[in-house]
Design a protein that fits this description.
Elements lengths: L3 H16 L13 H13 L2 E5 L6 H11 L3 E6 L6 H4 L1 E6 L2 E6 L1 H7 L6 E6 L21 E4 L2 E4 L4 E7 L11 H4 L3 E3 L9 H11 L5 H21 L7 H21 L1 H9 L4 H4 L1
Parallel strand pairs: 1-8, 1-9, 2-5, 5-8
Antiparallel strand pairs: 3-4, 6-7
Length: about 280
């Protein structure tokens, strides 16, 4: 069993790799190829669909990244148990002494006439009261439209909606007839062993300037560190994204160290053999 000081040392190293002086590395996030193929199919076949899966598997991050890379205009709205219809569609307010209607994000999106595909992402959709999504029921009509407060707002073929949510057994998640009938993708949290090829790919990208033994040492060190912490703290949920993000941060630190002194960087990299060495 790890002593408290050893655990603190491991956690400290892990935090440094994950956050200290590290830029965003989302462009290096490797997505499981099967998910990308299925997502592409759903985008071609459906105007509105949902993606269900546990937290930490990249639903929000990767969907936004993929859409923006393809040139889609993306509007992401996060829902919660406190979300009201007025928050999403429209609510009265006072401006210059006059009562006016302030458009919410969904109604503003619906009124747009976009040149490119415009995708509305409703994140954590099944945390909100199902009634707040009722105006979206008519998106499946031909032509599609949004029905709000007796007003029919016609949509263009370029308007799309993606709902992202957690499985219904998660606390506070709600079900509705409308969302239950939507076409869906179900993403499961894979075991790390299922991602060996992806880890290899991302390590090749991140550590392209290192030779094979040093690449292996980097991956082994990061995986070992996270697994040691997880063994000591079983309640901590670790996802594949944690491994990948930490590898990205380590690559950034090694790159900076290499620019300071190539000899010193080589010496430090050769020491990354196992978590036992670091603690």
């Amino acid at each position: 069993m790890l002593f408290r000081s050893q655990l603190k040392s491991v956690q400290g190293l892990l935090e440094k790799f994950k956050s200290e002086m590290a830029p965003s590395m989302e462009e290096n996030y490797v997505w499981h190829p099967n998910r990308e193929v299925r997502f592409d199919q759903m985008m071609r076949q459906h105007r509105m669909f949902k993606i269900m899966g546990p937290t930490g598997i990249g639903k929000t991050t990767k969907v936004k990244q993929w859409l923006e890379k393809k040139g889609y205009k993306v509007k992401c709205v996060s829902l919660s148990p406190n979300t009201r219809s007025a928050d999403l569609y429209a609510y009265p307010t006072v401006r210059d002494g006059q009562f006016v209607t302030q458009l919410g994000p969904i109604l503003a999106w619906a009124r747009e006439r976009p040149e490119n595909e415009s995708v509305l992402i409703l994140d954590e959709f099944n945390l909100a009261d199902p009634s707040v999504l009722d105006p979206l029921k008519t998106l499946g009509k031909t032509p599609p439209y949004l029905d709000w407060d007796g007003e029919r707002i016609e949509l263009t073929p370029k308007h799309r909606v993606i709902l992202l949510g957690n499985p219904t057994h998660y606390f506070g998640r709600r079900q509705s007839e409308m969302t239950d009938l939507l076409p869906s993708l179900v993403w499961k949290k894979p075991h790390l062993s299922e991602y060996r090829a992806e880890l290899r790919t991302v390590s090749d990208q991140l550590f392209s300037t290192l030779d094979e033994p040093k690449k292996t040492a980097c991956v082994t060190t990061v995986v070992g560190l996270i697994q040691v912490v997880q063994q000591a703290m079983p309640e901590m949920v670790v996802t594949y994204r944690d491994y990948q993000d930490t590898l990205s941060r380590l690559a950034a630190r090694l790159s900076k160290a290499g620019s300071d002194s190539s000899g010193r960087s080589e010496e430090h990299t050769s020491e990354l053999q196992s978590p036992d060495h670091l603690v």
